[in-house]
């Protein structure tokens, strides 16, 4: 800033040469050092009025720069420091020659341009704060937008899930309906089969009852026939037995009659014995009667 004001106060290169002829590099380097360290500067006043004007203007620019740089503070030490010097410190030399002054003028112009293009730390801090404020101001809207996008995304996902759920429910209901209809049809078929089986079973029971009745009737008839047969046989046996008994009785009576007749004709019991080589009969009441049957063919020779 001081260099730009200093250059603007010079009208021509001749006046700049005459001005710089009385100023040494040492005073310029000390001016740069004092400007960055924030200390007060004492410049040697020359007899040249243009130089005094440039010094006064440079002093004002330095004061404003110093006021800005005082805002920078290191918290740990509590001191006020300026930014490091970007100028090159060279030994003092005289600028009496035009060839030796032109490079220095070029350096001053470049430094002035750099000063104009480069912002101060205070400006950087203000720009940073402004950027932070802007970000902070944009943060709620950004958060709101993000929240809105997130909510919209959640609503979309929820709607998608609902659609999927409805589709699944519809598919499940259709499947359930088809399954219910199928089960109903199967139940009807099973019921029909059961009814048919029950009817067949009833018919079989009726037929079985009829057959049983017929069999029972036949059994009764057969039993009656068997009883009649047995009765007939019993009667036949009884008649035969009676006939046999009658014949036996008749035979016994005939034998008895014959026996009685034989008993009446029976002689006095006698017994034979041998005496003197002769068979002699004698009366013996205890002797057995003569046999009624005589074997013609005696086994005794």
TrEMBL record:
InterPro entries named among the record's database cross-references: CCDC34, CCDC34/181
Coiled-coil parts of chain: none
Top-rank lineage group of the source organism: Eukaryota
Domain Coiled-coil: 121-299
Region listing for Disordered, in residue ranges: 31-50, 58-160
PANTHER family: COILED-COIL DOMAIN-CONTAINING PROTEIN 34, NY-REN-41 ANTIGEN L15 -RELATED
This protein's name: Coiled-coil domain-containing protein
Taxon lineage: Eukaryota, Metazoa, Spiralia, Lophotrochozoa, Platyhelminthes
């Amino acid at each position: 800033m001081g260099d730009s004001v200093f250059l603007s106060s010079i009208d021509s290169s001749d006046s700049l040469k005459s001005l710089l002829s009385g100023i040494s590099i040492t005073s310029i380097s000390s001016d740069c050092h004092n400007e960055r360290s924030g200390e007060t500067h004492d410049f040697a006043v020359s007899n040249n009025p243009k130089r005094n004007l440039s010094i006064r203007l440079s002093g004002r620019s330095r004061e404003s720069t110093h006021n800005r740089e005082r805002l920078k503070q290191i918290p740990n030490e509590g001191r006020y420091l300026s930014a490091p010097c970007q100028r090159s410190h060279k030994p003092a030399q005289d600028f009496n020659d035009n060839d030796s002054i032109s490079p220095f003028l070029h350096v001053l112009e470049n430094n002035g341009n750099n000063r104009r293009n480069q912002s101060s730390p205070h400006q950087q801090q203000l720009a940073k704060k402004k950027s932070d404020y802007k970000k902070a101001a944009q943060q709620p809207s950004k958060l709101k937008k993000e929240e809105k996008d997130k909510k919209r995304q959640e609503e979309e996902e929820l709607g998608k899930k609902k659609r999927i759920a409805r589709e699944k429910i519809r598919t499940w209901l259709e499947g359930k309906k088809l399954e219910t209809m199928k089960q109903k049809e199967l139940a009807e078929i099973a019921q029909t089969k059961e009814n048919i089986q029950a009817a067949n079973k009833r018919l079989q029971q009726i037929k079985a009852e009829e057959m049983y009745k017929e069999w029972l009737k036949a059994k009764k008839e057969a039993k009656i026939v068997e009883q009649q047969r047995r009765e007939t046989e019993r009667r036949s046996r009884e008649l035969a037995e009676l006939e046999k008994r009658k014949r036996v009785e008749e035979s016994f009576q005939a034998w008895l009659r014959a026996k009685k007749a034989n008993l009446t004709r029976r002689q006095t019991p006698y017994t034979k014995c041998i005496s003197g080589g002769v068979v002699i009969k004698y009366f013996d009441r205890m002797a057995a009667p003569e046999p009624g049957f005589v074997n013609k063919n005696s086994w005794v020779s």
